[in-house]
Write a structure and sequence with these properties.
Elements (H helix, E strand, L loop, with lengths): L8 H18 L4 H7 L5 H5 L2 E2 L7 E2 L13 H32 L12 H10 L9 H14 L16 H9 L7 H11 L8 H31 L5 E5 L9 E7 L3 H10 L2 H9 L5 E6 H11 L3 E3 L4 H6 L5 E4 L8 H5 L5 E4 L10 E2 L7 H14 L16 E5 L3 H9 L13 H9 L4 E5 L11 H12 L2 E6 H10 L12 H10 L4 E5 L4 H15 L8 E5 L5 H13 L3 E3 L9 H10 L1 H4 L3 E3 L3 H18 L3
Parallel strand pairs: 4-5, 4-7, 5-6, 7-8, 8-9, 11-12, 11-14, 12-13, 14-15, 15-16
Antiparallel strand pairs: 1-2, 3-10
C-alpha cells in the first residue's frame, strides 16, 4: 500500500496557476481577474446599509444621513436586507424540492423516473400518516408526492417534517414563532414584511428570517433530499476519486454542474451503456468520464461513485483544461462567465432548466416528458465533440485523491450497527456514537458546510479547519463545496485516520469510516438536522445541549444564509468565516450573535482567523460537554 499523503492547498494553487496560463493564451476572462476588477467592494453593501426597495431612493445610511427618506434607520434597513437575502436562498432550495416532487409524481415502473427505495417511501408515508397497506408502490409514490407539493401552499398548520424533531424542540419552535408554515407563505411573508412602509423593527424581521430558513431546511430542502433518495436510491458508502486529475486526456469528458440530480442520473447511466462506449471509441476516445462540480457532483458521487472534479471556484478550471467536451448545468451557482469562456475552447455549454438560462449556451429544456431524449442528445453530441479538441490547449493537472462518500443518516446508523453487540444492544440507533462522545473518545462533531468565496483563499479554511478538528478528536460531517474541498485534499480517504487524534482514529478503524463524512449536497444539510434530532432523542438531551456545532467558513450565497438560519434555529451554534452583510446595525449584530439565543438556544459566531475560529469551536464543544457533565 502506498503511503498516505494529503494534497496541499499550495499544490492545488499551482495547478490553477498553470491553467490560468492557458486562459491568458486564449484571452479568456477568469474569476481571479474579475475579483481584482471589483475590488474594493461597496462598503454600503457590505454593511447592509443601502436600501433600494422603493424609488424614492436608493438611500444610504451615513453619519450625516442616519435615516432614509421614509425615516427607516440603519437597523431596519439591515434587517430587511437580511430577510430578503434569506428569502432568496430559502426559495431557491425549496423550489429544487418542488421539482423533485413533480418528478416523483411522474415516476413509473418503466421509467425513466422510478422508485428505487420503496422501503424509504413506505417509511415516510407512515411518518405522514398515509395508509400504505395494499397500495401499489407507484400509487403510493404519487400520493406522497402530491401531499409534499401541497406543503408549499398549505392553508394551515406547520411543515410535516417538523415531526421528526424532539417534542421539546417542536414546542419551542411554535412558541417562538419560528415553526415554518407553508413554504411559499414564508417567502411571501418575507417580501411583504420588507415592502416599503412595512416592518422596520429588527426583532420582528430577524424572527421571520429564522422562520424562512426553517421553511427551507425543515421544508423544501428536506423534501428534495428524501424524495431524491426515494427515486435514485438512499446513499450508502462507496469509493470514488476527486480533483482535476479525474479527467482523462484519452477519454470523452462530460462535467455535470449545478444542484438537481435528475438529468445527471440519466447521463451517467447512458455513458455506461455499451452503445455510448462504442460511439466514444469510434471517435478515437478510450471511454467516457463523467465528473461532477458543486452539488450535482455531490449527488451523483454518493449514488454512482462519479468522481468529484472540483467545487464552485473550479468550474472555470475544468474548461481551461482544454479536455472538457461538455459542461452540462442544471440550476444554481453557475457562472455566467462559462458562456464566453467555453467559446475559447471546443467545449459545449449546455443549460437545461428555464430557471437557469445563460447567454452563449446551448439550451435544451429538460422535463419529465423528454428526460432520456435530452440525456441522449447531450451525450451523443459530447462524444462527437471529442474530435474538435485543440491539442495544444490540453493540460490536465495530475492531482487525484481517493474518497469514501455517501454517508446518509441511514448509512451512518448502519455503520454504527457494525460496532454494536447485536446480542445485547439495540441496533438502528445513534447510541454507539453517543457512547463514544460520552466516554471522551470523541469530543464532539462539527457540521462543516458551505461554498467557496473569493474573499477567502479558496478551500483554505475548509481544509485547514478540518485537519485541526480531526487532530482534536472531533469528527466532521460535511456537504456541498466543503465536502468537495475535503475530498480533493484527501481527507475522505480512510487512511486520513492517521492524521487524527487517537480517539477519532480508533473510531475510524472500528467503524471503517474516514474522519470526514460526506453527507451530500447543500440540500442534504437537512440530513444533518435529522441526525441532530436523532442524537437528541437517543440521548435524552436537547439539540442545543449536544457537543455539536455548525460551521460555514467560506460561504457566499443567499442559500447559505438560509441554511445558517435553520441550523441556528434547530439549536446548533453556528460559526462563520465571512461577515454577513449586517455590520451596519449594532442591533442586528447583537440579535444574531446573542439575542436569538433566547428564542432558539443558539446563535451565530463570526471569526476570520483560522486558529481563533478553530479554538472557538473547540471551546464551544468543550463547554457543552462540561454543561452536561461529560
Amino acid at each position: 500500500m502506498s503511503e498516505f499523503k494529503l494534497i496541499s492547498i499550495e499544490e492545488m494553487e499551482q495547478a490553477t496557476e498553470r491553467l490560468l496560463e492557458t486562459a491568458a493564451k486564449v484571452g479568456a476572462d477568469t474569476w481571479q481577474v474579475r475579483v481584482k476588477n471589483q475590488t474594493p467592494h461597496c462598503k454600503f453593501g457590505e454593511q447592509g446599509i443601502c436600501c433600494r426597495i422603493c424609488t424614492m431612493g436608493p438611500c444610504r445610511i451615513t453619519p450625516k444621513a442616519p435615516r432614509g427618506i421614509c425615516g427607516c434607520d440603519a437597523h431596519g434597513i439591515v434587517a430587511r436586507n437580511f430577510v430578503r437575502f434569506t428569502a432568496g436562498g430559502g426559495a431557491t432550495h425549496s423550489d429544487h424540492g418542488r421539482e423533485i416532487c413533480f418528478e416523483l409524481m411522474a415516476a413509473k415502473p418503466e421509467g425513466p423516473f422510478k422508485v428505487n427505495d420503496p422501503e424509504k417511501l413506505i417509511r415516510i408515508a407512515k411518518e405522514w400518516d398515509v395508509e400504505t397497506e395494499g397500495k401499489d408502490i407507484y400509487d403510493l409514490a404519487h400520493e406522497l408526492a402530491e401531499l409534499a407539493a401541497m406543503e408549499y401552499g398549505k392553508v394551515r398548520g406547520f411543515q410535516n417534517w417538523l415531526k421528526r424533531a424532539p417534542e421539546y424542540t417542536q414546542k419551542l419552535w411554535i412558541e417562538q414563532e419560528v415553526a415554518p408554515r407553508a413554504v411559499d407563505r414564508e417567502v411571501s411573508t418575507c417580501m411583504h414584511m420588507t415592502h416599503m412602509g412595512n416592518s422596520s423593527k429588527p426583532e420582528a424581521l430577524i424572527r421571520q428570517a429564522l422562520r424562512m430558513g426553517m421553511a427551507d431546511g425543515w421544508g423544501g430542502s428536506m423534501t428534495g433530499t428524501e424524495f431524491s433518495d426515494i427515486m435514485f436510491g438512499t446513499p450508502m458508502p462507496t469509493d470514488t476519486t476527486a480533483n482535476l486529475g479525474v479527467m482523462k486526456e484519452d477519454c470523452v469528458n462530460i462535467v455535470m454542474h449545478g444542484h438537481d440530480p435528475s438529468l445527471s442520473e440519466f447521463i451517467c447511466d447512458l455513458c455506461d451503456s455499451p452503445e455510448m462506449l462504442e460511439r466514444a471509441k469510434s471517435v478515437g476516445a478510450k471511454g467516457i468520464v463523467v465528473s461532477g462540480i458543486c452539488c450535482t457532483g455531490n449527488e451523483i458521487t454518493m449514488r454512482k461513485a462519479v468522481p468529484m472534479v472540483g467545487n464552485f471556484l473550479q468550474q472555470e478550471n475544468v474548461v481551461l483544461t482544454g479536455a472538457c467536451e461538455a459542461i452540462v448545468v442544471d440550476v444554481q451557482c453557475i457562472f455566467p462567465a462559462l458562456g464566453p469562456l467555453t467559446k475559447c475552447f471546443h467545449t459545449k455549454f449546455y443549460t437545461t432548466s428555464k430557471i437557469c438560462q445563460q447567454p452563449m449556451s446551448e439550451f435544451i429544456h429538460f422535463t419529465t416528458d423528454n428526460a432520456m431524449d435530452v440525456a441522449r442528445q447531450i451525450v451523443e453530441e459530447s462524444i462527437d465533440n471529442f474530435k474538435n479538441r485543440k491539442p495544444d490547449l490540453v493540460h490536465i493537472p495530475q492531482l487525484t485523491t481517493k474518497a469514501t462518500v455517501g454517508y446518509s443518516v441511514e448509512a451512518i446508523v448502519k455503520a454504527l450497527d457494525g460496532v454494536t453487540n447485536s446480542q445485547v444492544d439495540v441496533t438502528g440507533t445513534t447510541k454507539p456514537l453517543l457512547e463514544c462522545v460520552t466516554s471522551g473518545v470523541l469530543r464532539g462533531a462539527v457540521a462543516l458546510v458551505g461554498c467557496n468565496n473569493p474573499k477567502i483563499r479558496p478551500d483554505y479554511l475548509h481544509i485547514e479547519l478540518m485537519k485541526k478538528l480531526i487532530a482534536n478528536d472531533i469528527i466532521i460531517i460535511t456537504t456541498g463545496c466543503g465536502a468537495q474541498a475535503a475530498a480533493r485534499a484527501g481527507l475522505m480517504d480512510k487512511e486520513a485516520k492517521n492524521i487524527c487524534g487517537a480517539g477519532l482514529k480508533r473510531v475510524c478503524e472500528l467503524a471503517d469510516i474516514p474522519p470526514v463524512l460526506h453527507m451530500g449536497s447543500c440540500v442534504d444539510i437537512s440530513r444533518m438536522m435529522v441526525l441532530a434530532a436523532e442524537l437528541a432523542k437517543d440521548s435524552g438531551l436537547k439539540i442545543s445541549q449536544l457537543p455539536v456545532v455548525g460551521c460555514a467558513p467560506e460561504y457566499m450565497s443567499e442559500k447559505a444564509v438560509s441554511i445558517g438560519n435553520y441550523v441556528v434555529a434547530t439549536g446548533l451554534e453556528t460559526f462563520l468565516g465571512v461577515d454577513p452583510y449586517v455590520s451596519g446595525s449594532s442591533e442586528v449584530v447583537e440579535l444574531l450573535t446573542s439575542g436569538i439565543r433566547d428564542w432558539v438556544e443558539a446563535a451565530y459566531h463570526v471569526e476570520h482567523d483560522l486558529d481563533k475560529l478553530c479554538e472557538d469551536m473547540i471551546a464551544c464543544i468543550e463547554a457543552k460537554r462540561d454543561a452536561i457533565g461529560i
